[in-house]
Design goal:
binds S-adenosylmethionine, 16% strand, globular, 12 strands, TIM Barrel, 28% helix, 352 residues, alpha/beta, binds iron/sulfur cluster
Length: 352
C-alpha cells in the first residue's frame, strides 16, 4: 500500500519521519509540475498529420498495467507534479481506463494534485463523460479540426463527427469544461476558422489552434500541411477583434479574447513562437518511457526501476537523473529542404 508520497508503507517505519522527496527542478531552474501520460499508443482514428494509415502498435505486453501507471503518476505527485493530463493515442480506448481516473482522484481529494485532465478525440466520450466528472475531472480537451462531417472523415480517415458531437453534449451535460483543439492545416481548415470560433464560443467552449509539428513519418509532406498561426491570426483580424489575455492553463497556449463572441481563443505555436523557456512539462509513454521534451529524442526508462523494487527510491533516482538532462527546448523546422521529422516517433506515442 502507498502513502501520499507514493512510497511503500512499511510497519517498521514511522510515517511521521518520512521526508517528502525533493521536487524535480531541471538545469534551467524550471520546476516540473505537469506530466502528460500517454496510456496507449493505439487509436480508433488515423488523423493524417498524426499517423500513417498503416501503423505498427506496441505489443500489449509491453504496456504498463493501470496499477503501474497509477504508481508512476503517484511518484510524480510525490515529486511536485500538480497537474496530470491523460492522453494517447486515444486514452479512452484503453480497456479499463476509468480505473486509473478513479484511483488518481484520491490525489485530487487530498489536495496533492490540482487537476487531472484528458485529451481525447471524443469518439468514446458519450460513454465516459459522466464518470470522468465523478472522478474529479473538470476540464477536457477534445480534438476536432473541422465541423464538416465529410472533411472530418477525410482528416481522421476513420472518424464519425456525429459521435464526437454526442460526446460533447454528454460532456457538457456532465458539467465538464471543454476546450476544442484544432490543428491548423493549410488549405484544409483555414477558411473554416471563423465558423469554428463562432461555433465553439456559441457553445461556451474555448478553442485553440495548434501548429502542425514534424513528429513521425506520415503519408505526405509536412510542408504541405503547415499553416503558420501568425498567418491565420492575421486573417482572423478581418472579422474579429482579438485582445491578448493573461489567461493561462499551465500548458503552452497563449490566449486572446474575441470581442465579437466574448470567448477565448488559444494559439499553440511551437514553430512561429517557441515557448520552451517556460516549459514545466514532461511526458511519459504507456511503456514508462520518460521524454523530457516533446521535440527531442533523449528519454529515460522508468519501467525498469518501477518494476525493480517495491520501494519508489530507484524510481525517484531515475526521475531525478532524467530531469537533470531536460534540454532547453525543441528545434522544429518545417520547410522544403528539411525532409526528416524532428523526431521519429509519432505524437500518438508521446501524447499531445
Ligand atoms: N487522441 C487524442 C486526441 O486526438 O485528442 C489524444 C492524443 S493526440 C496525439 C493529442 C493532440 O495532438 C491532438 O489535439 C492532435 O490534434 C495533436 N497532434 C497530433 N499530431 C500532431 C502533429 N504532428 N502536430 C501538432 N499536433 C498534433
Ligand atoms: Fe488518434 Fe489523436 Fe492521433 Fe488523431 S490525433 S490519430 S485521434 S491520437
Amino acid at each position: 500500500m502507498g502513502d501520499i508520497y507514493g512510497m511503500i508503507l512499511r510497519p517498521d517505519i514511522d510515517a511521521a519521519t518520512l521526508v517528502p522527496p525533493a521536487p524535480l527542478v531541471d538545469p534551467f531552474g524550471r520546476a516540473i509540475s505537469y506530466i502528460r501520460v500517454s496510456v496507449t499508443d493505439r487509436c480508433d482514428f488515423r488523423c493524417v498529420y498524426c499517423m500513417s494509415e498503416d501503423m505498427n502498435f506496441l505489443p500489449k505486453g509491453d504496456l504498463l498495467t493501470l496499477e503501474e501507471l497509477d504508481r508512476l503518476c503517484s511518484a510524480f505527485v510525490a515529486k511536485g507534479t500538480r497537474k496530470i493530463r491523460i492522453t494517447g493515442g486515444e486514452p479512452l480506448v484503453r480497456r479499463g481506463i476509468m480505473t486509473l481516473f478513479r484511483s488518481l482522484s484520491r490525489h485530487l481529494g487530498s489536495g496533492a494534485l490540482e487537476e487531472v485532465t484528458v485529451t481525447t478525440n471524443g469518439s468514446q466520450l458519450a460513454k465516459h463523460a459522466r464518470e470522468l466528472a465523478d472522478c474529479g475531472v473538470r476540464r477536457i480537451n477534445v480534438s476536432m479540426d473541422t465541423l464538416d462531417p465529410d472533411k472530418f472523415r477525410a482528416i481522421t480517415r476513420w472518424g464519425d463527427l456525429a459521435k464526437v458531437m454526442e460526446g460533447l453534449d454528454a460532456a457538457q451535460a456532465a458539467g465538464l469544461d471543454i476546450k476544442i483543439n484544432a490543428v491548423a492545416l493549410k488549405g484544409f481548415n483555414e477558411a473554416e476558422a471563423p465558423e469554428m470560433i463562432r461555433w465553439a464560443h456559441g457553445r461556451g467552449m474555448d478553442l485553440t489552434f495548434i501548429e502542425v509539428m514534424p513528429l513521425g513519418e506520415i503519408d505526405g509532406a509536412r510542408v504541405d500541411q503547415y499553416l503558420p498561426l501568425t498567418q491565420l491570426r492575421a486573417q482572423l483580424l478581418d472579422q474579429f477583434t482579438l485582445t491578448d489575455s493573461s489567461y493561462q492553463t499551465g500548458g503552452p497556449a497563449r490566449y486572446v479574447t474575441v470581442k465579437e463572441t466574448g470567448g477565448r481563443l488559444g494559439f499553440i505555436t511551437p514553430l512561429t513562437h517557441n515557448f520552451c523557456e517556460g516549459c514545466n512539462r514532461v511526458r511519459v509513454t504507456c511503456t514508462g518511457t520518460l521524454y523530457m521534451c516533446l521535440g527531442q529524442e533523449d528519454a529515460a526508462d522508468l519501467r525498469a526501476p518501477l518494476r525493480a523494487s517495491e520501494s519508489n527510491e530507484p524510481l525517484f533516482k531515475a526521475m531525478e537523473e532524467a530531469i537533470a538532462r531536460k534540454p532547453k527546448g525543441h528545434d522544429f523546422v518545417i520547410d522544403r529542404t528539411t525532409r526528416n521529422p524532428a523526431v521519429g516517433r509519432h505524437m500518438s506515442v508521446t501524447g499531445g
